[in-house]
Write a structure and sequence with these properties.
alpha/beta; TIM Barrel; 2 domains; 12 helices; 14% strand; binds 5,10-methenyl-6,7,8-trihydrofolic acid; binds 3-methyl-2-oxobutanoic acid; binds magnesium ion; magnesium; transferase; metal-binding; Pantoate_hydroxy_MeTrfase
């Protein structure tokens, strides 16, 4: 069944859980779509897992458009959400709407996601008013790594927790259709989930969120630069890949690959004339 912003909103009302994963290319998105994943996020985490940067700050609009289009072609039923990269929405409401529009038109997104609370509520409102669904993102917002001083759990003090609750209400009020909660204590994520009428999608935010999301290379054991506590490995594809690459390398060196079954033939009469 086709997932839309409406599906996400009604899932919360009917207490159905939402599943999301990140993807950055056509073939991975297609597998997730066929597996029945509700939403696919073209995350700016592509800066880490695809491009090899240490953080997400260098990711560009062109990167997001390029990967958004690829994912959109593979996702028939999953809702495709594309991350707005660092500095594509913080500079002005005009820039925010303009760049959200590019992610829809050129990136073929079904919705966009941006990081922040009250400070971006005007942008969320303006993008929503342009007919573009917005997913909000609170807690550990990686584009603010330099302001946080590192990747840390958010909202642990009373003051920080209150700010998160108020920000969640602010993004809902501004028109966001869903909210990602990243690295937030489980009980606070539960309180936030109960305090708003839009679905919360957790990553390191516990089981009471309305949905869950993980970076796919993390859950498949394909990424090892860092492994947050919230990651569960559903398969060790990284090891499987490395073993296959080694075997391929070995077989080439030994002359085992390619053998007859992977080779094209020509009539002997033809080839003899060429010698
Ligand atoms: N591969 C990948 N997975 C992600 O989940 C992810 C990205 N990349 N890139 C963008 C952000 C960065 N993220 C991160 C990165 C590190 C931690 C981390 O090391 N967290 C500590 C918290 C320690 C604490 O405060 O108690 C941890 O041990 O989980 C968390 C989220 C989440 N996002
Ligand atoms: C971790 C998720 C929520 C994200 O924003 C990303 O992948 O960029
Ligand atoms: Mg992101």
């Amino acid at each position: 069944m086709k997932n839309t912003v409406t599906t996400f909103k009604s899932a919360k009302e009917s207490n159905e859980k939402l599943s999301m994963l990140t993807a950055y290319d056509y073939s991975t998105a297609k597998l997730m779509d066929e597996a029945g994943i509700n939403g696919i996020l073209v995350g700016d985490s592509l800066g880490n897992v695809v491009l090899g940067y240490e953080d997400t700050l260098s990711v560009t609009m062109e990167d997001m458009i390029h990967h958004g289009r690829a994912v959109a072609r593979g996702a028939k039923n999953s809702l495709v959400v594309v991350d707005m990269p660092f500095m594509s929405y913080q500079t002005s409401v005009y820039d925010a709407v303009k760049n959200a529009g590019r992610l829809m038109k050129e990136g073929r997104a079904g919705a966009v996601k941006l990081e922040g609370g009250k400070e971006v509520s005007e942008a969320i409102n303006a993008i929503t008013n342009a007919g573009i669904p917005v997913m909000a993102h609170l807690g550990l917002t990686p584009q603010s790594i330099n302001a946080f001083g590192g990747f840390k759990v958010q909202g642990k003090s009373e003051e920080a927790a209150k700010k998160l609750i108020n920000d969640a209400k602010a993004v809902e009020e501004a028109g966001a259709f869903a909210l990602v909660l990243e690295c937030v204590p489980e009980k606070l994520a539960k309180l936030i989930t109960e305090s708003i009428n839009i679905p919360t999608i957790g990553i390191g935010a516990g089981k009471y969120c309305d949905g869950q999301i993980l970076v796919y290379q993390d859950m498949l054991g394909m990424f090892s630069d860092f492994t947050p506590k919230f990651v569960k490995k559903y398969a060790d594809i990284g090891s499987v890949m490395k073993e296959a690459f080694k075997e391929y390398n070995d077989e080439i060196n030994k002359g085992v690959f390619p053998s007859g079954e992977h080779t094209y033939k020509i009539d002997d009469e033809v080839i003899e004339k060429l010698y």
